[in-house]
Specification:
Blueprint (H helix, E strand, L loop, with lengths): L5 E4 L5 E5 L3 E3 L2 E9 L7 H15 L2 H18 L1 H6 L8 H4 L3 E10 L7 E9 L7 E6 L2 E5 L6
Parallel strand pairs: 4-5
Antiparallel strand pairs: 1-2, 2-4, 3-4, 5-6, 6-7, 7-8
Length: about 150
């Protein structure tokens, strides 16, 4: 990946660099974002991090789908009436649940005020729970769901 392939958007109060193409996988397309909270510029370290995240994530798509499905099943068990209001069945299969995901992004975050000043993760926005998006840390040997608001 090259710096020139990213478009900068500073309208969020911080800088977001989006890659010009989505990454196609067997579970759907992923956007690519680098978020910089401190005003510094896009550098090679961040480009290397996003490349590593994409390559690792592409090898773990079924495990990513499993985490998304687990989130859906927990929501379906706790709030089936809400899913019905959204016309989302409560008995979807793992493959069907992906039709109800608004977006998935590979993200690198640089935030000097966070516990992890450099972080990389997958950000999933399910239609059934837009208030509580899903964050998945994708490392070579593991996938971990985490809550960025809890300081994890």
């Amino acid at each position: 990946m090259k710096k020139e392939q990213f478009t900068r958007d500073g309208s969020y109060g911080f800088q977001v660099y989006s890659w010009e193409e989505n990454i196609k996988t067997d579970i759907g397309e992923f956007g690519v974002e680098i978020q910089i909270m401190d005003g510094s510029s896009l550098d090679q370290q961040l480009l290397d991090m996003i490349s590593t995240l994409i390559e690792t994530g592409k090898t773990k798509t079924l495990a990513i789908r499993d985490h998304i499905y687990a989130s859906y099943k927990a929501f379906a068990d706790e709030q089936p009436e809400y899913l019905e209001d959204l016309d989302i069945p409560t008995d979807l299969t793992k493959n069907q649940v992906m039709e109800h995901v608004d977006s998935m992004n590979f993200v690198v975050l640089k935030d000097p005020e966070a516990e992890r000043t450099l972080d990389s993760f997958i950000h999933v926005r399910p239609i059934w729970d837009e208030e509580h998006t899903l964050y998945i840390r994708c490392e070579i040997n593991s996938l971990t769901v985490f809550d960025p608001m809890s300081g994890e």
